[in-house]
Amino acid sequence: MNLYEHTIVARQDVSPSQIKQLIDKYSKIVEKNDGNIVQTENWGLLNLSYIIKKNKKGNYIHFKIKGSGKIINELEKNESLDKNLLRYLTVKVKKFDLKANYFSKKVDEVEKNDSEK
């Protein structure tokens, strides 16, 4: 079994219910191909480094997947056809870091700054 970290970037105008549908859709593809999703993280709406298809921001969703390379091929084939997605990236890793939540601190700081205004 290989370990993969897979991130997708959805358009900025995608609703929360559509994000849930995207997570469900790609989770089912992984499970259908005998894979296992270890963890799913919704990183939220973040700024893009450059404009992609007239979008300055994107909704980031991150999956930690255990399975074969066939799963990744199937995922990327479906994602390339999905009009709601801007980009996707898959990285093969040796082990998962399940403890660190890289975007929680940033979210807390933003909420803190908003409350001070």
Radius of gyration: 15 Å
Largest sheet: 4 strands, antiparallel
| CATH class descriptor | Alpha Beta
Named CATH topology: Alpha-Beta Plaits
Task: Explain what this protein looks like in three dimensions.
There is one protein chain. A hairpin with a 2-residue loop joins strand 2 and strand 3. The mean pLDDT is 85. The chain has one domain: Alpha-Beta Plaits (2-Layer Sandwich), CATH 3.30.70. Helices cover 37% and strands 41% of the residues.
Secondary structure topology:
Layout lengths: L1 E9 L5 H17 L3 E17 L2 E13 L1 H13 L3 E9 L10 H13 L1
Antiparallel strand pairs: 1-3, 1-4, 2-3
Task: Supply the key terms.
117 residues; alpha+beta; Alpha-Beta Plaits; 4 strands; 37% helix; globular
Offer a concise description of the structure.
This protein is α+β, with helices and mostly antiparallel strands and 117 residues long. Helix content is 37%, strand content 41%.
